[in-house]
Amino acid sequence: MTKNSIIVKITILFAVALLSLSAFSFYFIKMQIDKESSESQRKYGQFIATINQIMRYGGNVELIEKYLAELEFHIVNDDQIKENLSKQIDPHFKGVIAKIVRDNESIYLLLQTPERVTLYRDSFKTVFKNYYLLTFIAFFIVVFLYVLVIKSLLPLKSLRKEIRKFAEGRTDIHCALEQNDEIGELANEFDNAVKKIAALNESRHLFLRTIMHELKTPLTKGRIVAEMIDSPKQKERLCSVFHRLNGLIDEFAKIEEMSSKNYQVSKNEYRLHAILHHVLKKLMIESEQAPTLLDLPAQEVIVKADFELLSLAIKNLLDNALKYSHGGKVFLEARGDSLNVKNFGAPLPYPIEEYFKPFFKDAKNPHSQGLGLGLYIAKSTLEAQGLPLLYQYEEGVHQFTLKGVVVEK
Fold first, then answer.
1. Which H or E run contains 304?
2. Which of 31-35, 276-280, 402-406 shows the lowest per-residue confidence on average (mean pLDDT)?
3. Can you tell me the mean pLDDT for 339-355?
4. What is the number of helices (H) and of strands (E) in the chain?
5. Nearest residue to 401 via CA among 384, 380, 382
6. Strand partners, 268
């Protein structure tokens, strides 16, 4: 559980509330005890003054005892208390005296005569126990509220796990709750949204599979017909076109699979030359034609990536560079842990972030070609592998950098 967790914050809040309640209760009860002790001291002082006045005007012990009985004083017969207070009794005093004595927090009235020593206490009940009871009830309410709040927040943990699964592309999740609070409503709404998205994804997959099947069927027939052409040159040209179209359909299928989080990325080490050979076939560039268009690394380079995704990214970057290069070759170089794709050209009229968006069309460029998907596909396939795509323009040269892909030269 992280320190920024809502449950941690609520726990700290309730802990502070309990500490504050404890401090308040302690000082309040102590203040009430001191207040009642002072009141008792003052009241007992008045009683002592009255008793002494009775004695001064010739009253006897029976009259004093009657006076104390009227004030609802009762005799204390607790031997332990008497023993504790025995030190405050003067054994050599032979007259009648009334005085206040204390034992811990309790106050007593001591009546000493030549015959006996009697300890009195009034029948007034202190409310200290009520204060302690109220404090206990307050503590119980705070703890009960804490448990209630934490219990209502606990489903957030399971909801977070389900949302994380959904973010990973899984739609086989269930997060509906029977709670009637805001968290329950949120979980139920999210569960409904997941079910709708799952249904839409299923419909989309079915639609795309149908479209691809319908596209591949005439392509297959076209290739069969092309094989029957007598002219080898025309036959090769048509077959390469059909092969190119078939490859594009496969690319779109892979992109759709990747965007729907159903593609399992498998990063391994490969020779860059093997990947470039695969890319040139996709670009329909013959090996003898490649040196006139591309400047590729001569040394052996080892890259670590998903073979199909990296091939798709490099293919789209090279294709984009070949389309918009202002003369000269397109350069692919390995530098450090990066691959750089360079071409000469005019500066971009829009920020590069705009070109990374799907179906972006450069309205200011009359020579703009394609659907505006090349850079979007390149960036998406690299991000799926955790590889950044960087861009810079300097001295008339566009440079796209695939960082962290090269592991050995």
1. strand 302-305
2. 31-35
3. 90
4. 12, 12
5. 382
6. 305
By mean pLDDT, which of 5-9, 93-97, 184-188 is the weakest?
93-97
Q: Which two tokens stand for residue 370?
A: 């394609």
Sheet holding 117-122, edge to edge: 73-75, 117-122, 106-112, 97-103
Q: Report CA-CA distances (Å) from 145 to 6, 126, 132, 134, 141.
A: 15, 31, 20, 16, 6
Whether pLDDT at 205 is above 90: no
C-beta contacts of 30-39 below 8 A and 24+ residues apart: 32/127, 32/128, 32/131, 33/105, 33/128, 36/126, 36/127, 36/128, 37/105, 37/107
Identify the helix (H) or strand (E) that includes residue 32. helix 6-56
Q: Give residue-wise pLDDT tens across range 218-262.
A: 777 787 877 788 788 788 778 777 777 877 777 777 777 776 666
- Read off the pTM: 0.53
Q: Where are the beta strands (DSSP E) in 3-96?
A: 73-75
- Per residue in 124-161, pLDDT (tens digit) is 655 667 778 888 899 999 999 999 888 888 888 888 88
Helix (H, G, I), strand (E, B) or coil at 357: coil
Matching residue, tokens 């003898």: 288
Share of the chain above pLDDT 90, in %: 19
CA–CA separation, 124 vs 153, rounded Å?
A: 49
User: What values do phi and psi take at 357, rounded to 5?
Assistant: -85, 145
Q: What is the separation of C-alpha 78 from the centre of its chain, rounded to a whole number of angstroms? A: 64
Token pair 């989309």: residue: 204
Q: At what angle do helices 61-70 and 6-56 cross, to 10 degrees?
A: 150
For the stretch 297-344, pLDDT in tens is 878 899 999 999 999 999 999 998 988 888 778 999 999 999 999 999
Handedness of CA 359, 365, 366, 367 (dihedral sign): negative
**Of the candidates 286, 276, 395, 397, the residue with the CA atom closest to the CA atom of residue 339:** 276
List of domains in the chain: 6-129 (no CATH), 158-263 (1.10.287.130), 269-408 (3.30.565.10)
Band of residue 114 on the pLDDT scale cut at 50, 70, 90: low
The answer to whether 172 and 162 have CB atoms below 8 angstroms apart is: no
The tokens for 352 are 């590069």
